Amino acid sequence: MSEASAFIGLLQSINSAQNILSSLLGLRVSAEVSGKIAEANKHLIEMSERLMAAQAENAALITRIRQLEEVAVQAKRSESALEDYEMKQVGQGAFVYAVKEGHNICEPPHWLCPDCFSNGHKSILQHDILFSIKSECYLCPRCKTGVQAEKGRTPGINDQTP
Ligand SMILES: [Zn+2]
pLDDT tens, 24-43? Predict the structure, then answer.
């Protein structure tokens, strides 16, 4: 039985009890019994309200659990996507993350931003229009970190040399 059908079943039971109490009021009963029936009915109404509040809270918790499960799945995907990379020095004292030697990830050659990598994000460095005689300039579109690689050094072909 699902949570929702359990709640519905409880509400139906409370409703049935209220109907029985109402039918008792149709009989000739003393004022004292009538008072007790009204009191029991009041408790059943409170029970219904608390049950509906619990149902709303339960639904919110289920939604939150689903959101957290999705976050966990995304984090796992990101983590596994980063497992194909390793840190490489690209000259000028600059570091990037490049695809590990022997790994084929079916993507064009690229480097990842070291700052974003350490925060669990796969952010591909973009060749910057900034010109330098001594270096190749790359920029992270996510965090704007700039990387100056050795002149002529580009992702893919020559990023396996230390
Ligand atoms: Zn970055």
Answer: 888 888 889 889 998 999 99
Q: Where are the domains of the chain?
A: 3-80, 84-150
Alpha carbon of 124 to ligand 1 centroid (Å): 8
Query: Which residues hold their Cβ within 5 A of ligand 1, which is an ion?
Result: 113, 115-116, 123, 140, 142-143, 145
In this structure, are residues 120 and 105 in contact, taking their beta carbons and an 8 Å threshold? no
Q: In what order do the strands lie in the sheet with 126-127?
A: 126-127, 135-139, 146-150
Instruction: Please tell me the distance between residue 121's alpha carbon and the centre of ligand 1 in angstroms.
Output: 8
CA distance 153 to 133: 13
By CB neighbour count within 10 A (0-12 exposed, 13-18 middle, 19+ buried), where does 24 fall? Answer: middle
Question: Ligand 1 center to residue 140 CA distance, Å?
Answer: 5
User: From the CA of 98, how far away is ligand 1's center (Å)?
Assistant: 14
Render pLDDT for 10-20 as a digit per residue (tens, 0 to 9). Answer: 889 999 999 99
